[in-house]
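Exercise 7.
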Amino acid sequence: MLSWDVKRTQRGSGSQPSALEQAAGTKCPHENKKALELDPSLPEGHAMLGYTAALFEYDWKEAERRFRMAMARDPVPVFVRLFCAMSYLLPTGRPAEAVQQIELALQEDPLNILLRLSLANCLIAAGHDEEAAAGWLEILELNPAVAEAQGGLAVLRWLRSWTRRWHIAKRRTPSRLFPIGLDFSPGC
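Solution. The predicted structure, written as tokens, is:
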């Protein structure tokens, strides 16, 4: 099991943990466990422990257990759905479920740019390039300065152009130059 030991990160005496250390979980698990001792049904505590289990400990069973507990009661907080989708469902090869969770979160907060970007990324992972492109365009209508949406569209357009060129070259080149199984068609 791989994990990053941020406790070895050097920092000045008496200074507060950095945002990176907090995100990596040096304080997070302890504080969330304390919160869950006070209120075992607290969805935010379970979600943060699931996030930590997935992204820093690669403990997928624990992450699943924590996210199930976090999402057991309605209403499920928006960020709980986001963390579940992006840190657990997507990395475990379940992009369709990730899309579903992000769409549910967007019902609660339809103008949230982070949710919209996450949805586009999940749609790409699920093989829905056209829907992802439409999502990035909607984001740019809301805010033309969102670099992630600009980048997503640029990469998608480049890949489409490259794929078209590949197929043209493949048709014009003798088959002996293309090894068996080498295929860059969409969906491969």
